[in-house]
């Protein structure tokens, strides 16, 4: 890896384009390096994973709305939309499929200085591959770049510290991945990255307080904008520059300010793009920082069933990272995180709620665990309101560690019972994490897809999709266009908007 020092540059300071971060990323995108076998394997896994969680969300209102919008823009050759056989303009396919993938908060994650769902790169890059007639090997190369760029930015540049939503790293990464897919020059990719970043920076209010349906749309919007940015750049149009380092750019006014400095590592020329291997998927449909707590809760349901009874519990304190405490814990200061009438989007960002249900049920389900009747159960509400989080310096240090062997997303639970006794347990990583009790392998991704597709997709369609996905690097262009899942029955449509 090469490390680049990135800082604000006054307009009066000579700053060659070739030294800008956007150009460095464009060079990574244009590098024709081979994709190593273990990365190919993981890309196949994540394509299956994305399809699994998209299928499970096809009937939900945000996905229905986005799909209905997309279907109003038919196009040939175009790209496919999850759940239906229709082809639409590629930016609208990226939009609809991006919402479907993100709606349940159930696909892969990477957490460092910033957090991300790098699988959000798949819908826009796949949509362009289908539209442009690219084969499976080209798609794999594009996805390797998308994952690499987003994860490298997430390792170096914190957005949430300045209340900027994490999809500001996704616009540039998706644009870079599309650039690799299409074999575009650094000049074109550079311009696309500039626009993609410029139009996808937004505040984190979308993930604060009463969380709305926009939470699933935000990454889809970034992917849609990346497609449009590449199209515009291919037509010879230019974009704001220097986009990160400019005197009125992103660093100066949205991040650490004129004195801010970041050390961004990117693959050197000829170096394989391996960042996808640092990411991890979810076994459960909830914010990633809650994954380990669900696993601990379901274990404790057997080992300490008394913790499920609010009459026996005085308090439960989860000692965890600063991020977990302030984003999905009691440190957020959001009363909605303890509200039994809160939206699903809010509940999946409430670790007190999630841990209470895991303790009581010993399991987690992407639908029933969020049902209003489940959230409103009196014994659950009573237990839920006895659970709080604290920012623990050691767990925060481990959360931010660059040593993947000690990097952790869990914490220590300290429960005090009404009889004065205590129960103390800890968990560092989720069971499905590469260092967890049951790391996810190909068979787990396939099982997740089969489980979530059951009853939604016909058995023969399940087998057809898996047969294509598992041969991804060998697919021809027509097979890439068929890399979609069609529902067994007609899907709902939303009320009419403008089109």
Automatic annotation (TrEMBL):
Residues of the MmgE/PrpD N-terminal domain: 19-259
Residues in coiled coil: none
Superkingdom to which the source organism belongs: Bacteria
Residue ranges of domain MmgE/PrpD C-terminal in the record: 284-469
Gene3D superfamilies: 2-methylcitrate dehydratase PrpD
SUPFAM superfamilies: 2-methylcitrate dehydratase PrpD
Pfam families given in the database record: MmgE_PrpD_C (PF19305), MmgE_PrpD_N (PF03972)
Family to which this protein belongs: Belongs to the PrpD family.
PANTHER family the record matches: 2-METHYLCITRATE DEHYDRATASE, 2-METHYLCITRATE DEHYDRATASE-RELATED
Name of protein: MmgE/PrpD family protein
């Amino acid at each position: 890896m090469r490390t680049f020092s990135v800082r604000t540059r006054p307009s009066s300071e000579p700053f060659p384009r070739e030294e800008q971060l956007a150009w460095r990323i464009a060079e990574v995108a244009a590098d024709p390096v081979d994709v190593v076998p273990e990365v190919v394997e993981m890309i196949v896994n994540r394509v299956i994973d994305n399809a699994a969680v998209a299928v499970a969300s096809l009937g939900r209102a945000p996905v229905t709305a986005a799909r209905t919008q997309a279907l109003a823009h038919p196009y040939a050759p175009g790209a496919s939309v999850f759940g239906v056989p229709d082809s639409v303009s590629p930016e609208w396919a990226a939009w609809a499929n991006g919402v479907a993938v993100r709606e349940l908060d159930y696909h892969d994650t990477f957490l460092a200085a910033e957090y991300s769902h790098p699988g959000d790169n798949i819908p826009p890059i796949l949509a362009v591959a289908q539209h442009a007639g690219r084969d499976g090997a080209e798609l794999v190369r594009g996805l390797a770049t998308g994952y690499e760029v987003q994860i490298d930015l997430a390792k170096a540049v914190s957005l949430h510290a300045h209340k900027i939503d994490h999809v500001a790293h996704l616009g540039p990464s998706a644009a870079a991945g599309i650039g690799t897919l299409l074999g575009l020059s650094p000049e074109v990719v550079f311009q696309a990255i500039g626009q993609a970043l410029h139009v996808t920076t937004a505040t984190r209010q979308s993930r604060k307080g009463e969380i709305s349906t926009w939470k699933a749309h935000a990454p889809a919007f970034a992917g849609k904008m990346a497609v449009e940015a590449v199209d515009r750049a291919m037509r010879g149009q230019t974009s704001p520059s220097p986009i990160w380092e400019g005197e009125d750019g992103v660093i100066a006014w949205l991040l650490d300010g004129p004195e801010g400095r970041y050390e961004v590592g990117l693959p050197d020329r000829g170096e394989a793009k391996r960042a996808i291997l640092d990411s991890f998927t979810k076994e459960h449909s909830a914010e990633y920082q809650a994954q380990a707590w669900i696993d601990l809760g379901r274990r404790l349901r057997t080992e300490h069933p008394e913790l499920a009874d609010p009459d026996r519990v005085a308090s439960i304190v989860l000692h965890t990272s600063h991020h977990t405490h302030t984003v999905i814990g009691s440190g957020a200061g959001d009363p909605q995180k303890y509200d039994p009438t809160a939206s699903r989007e809010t509940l999946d960002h409430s670790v007190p709620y999630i841990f209470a249900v895991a303790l009581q049920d010993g399991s987690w389900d992407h639908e029933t665990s969020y049902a209003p009747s489940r959230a409103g159960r009196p014994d659950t509400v009573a237990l839920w309101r006895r659970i709080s989080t604290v920012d623990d310096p050691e767990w925060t240090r481990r959360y931010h560690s660059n040593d993947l062997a000690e990097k952790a997303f869990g914490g220590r639970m300290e429960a005090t019972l009404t009889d004065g006794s205590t129960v103390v347990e800890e968990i560092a990583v989720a069971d499905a994490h590469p260092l967890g009790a049951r790391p996810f392998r190909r068979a787990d991704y396939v099982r997740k897809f089969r489980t979530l597709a059951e009853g939604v997709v016909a058995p023969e369609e399940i087998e057809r999709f898996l047969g294509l996905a598992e041969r991804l690097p060998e697919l021809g262009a027509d097979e890439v266009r068929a890399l979609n899942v069609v529902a067994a029955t007609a899907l709902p449509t939303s009320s009419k908007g403008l089109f």
